[in-house]
Amino acid sequence: MPELPEVETVVRSLEQHLAGLAVTAVDLFMPEVIRSPKPEQFTEQITGKQFQKKLGRRGKYLLMHLSEGLALVVHLRMTGRLIYCDPELPLEKHTHVIFHLDNGKQLRFADVRRFGRLQLVPAIEVSGLAGIKDMGPEPLDPEFSREFLKKELRRRRTRIKSLLLDQCFVAGLGNIYADEALYRAKIHPERLAPDLTTREAAGLHKAIVEVIAGGIEHRGTSFRDYVDGEGRTGSFQHHLKVYNREGLPCSRCGRPIERIKLAGRSSYYCPACQKPK
């Protein structure tokens, strides 16, 4: 699933193209991907609307502000793609929506697994949407401070990896960046959050900020499906230390990276650098 760095990269890559363009028509091949309003109302309401200068993001949600006070909210889920392209570009098999733009280009939404959703709402209602209204602070925002993290860890009796994946705790982290942050901080994914020392909490905060910033700098992590708004892959996969590296040597100590299942999700870690306590 695209995480914060991937979604931020999509936003930045689309923003430079879409600002000021208007939707002239919509081809909707898979009505099920429209969460609200009803598909026929969605296509009618968005036609003629103009993309505003600044696109946005909250956690893993793309927030595309339109004229007349509307917002197109997109959640890519597991395999969603949102690509700005020429109409001559061959159509991907799983293209579900095409937005025709007034400069002759297209904005296409494709999704192999069909979990992604598009929603058209009044912009003033975005912060109250399910999935967004209870979201925690952004990792790179001042609100996500070391003091905040230390305080919240003390009151959350759960395993630290599961907590990092909780979008109500911190927005935008997923499996890849949670594993990478825990590795940098030398914390085992099964450790209980309140058992972390003050020093470990500070180290984890630093690691989360660094790994998210690094992911954005390298335009996200591409394994299979993720590409940015121009169809380009990211490169952070070349900088991963533990995620998807089971059996490969740890870059710090040389021990093989191991994988465990935690709350139904794979967690990658170094058994020597990230010892359970």
| DSSP E strands, number | 11
Number of domains: 2
What is the CA-CA span between the terminal residues? 31 Å
Series of secondary-structure elements, N-terminal to C-terminal: HEEHEEEEEEEHHHHEE
Task: Name the quaternary structure.
Answer: single chain
Helix/strand-derived category reads: alpha+beta
For the CA atoms, what is the radius of gyration? 20 Å
**If classified by CATH, what would the architecture of the largest domain be?**
Alpha-Beta Barrel
Strand arrangement within the widest β-sheet reads: 2-9-5-4-3
What percentage of amino acids are in beta strands? 15-25%
CATH topology tier name of the largest domain: N-terminal domain of MutM-like DNA repair proteins
Query: What general form does the structure show?
Result: elongated
On the 0-100 scale, what is the average pLDDT?
Answer: 96
**How can the largest sheet be summarized?**
5 strands, mixed
Count the DSSP helices.
6
Low-confidence runs (pLDDT<50, min 5 residues)? none
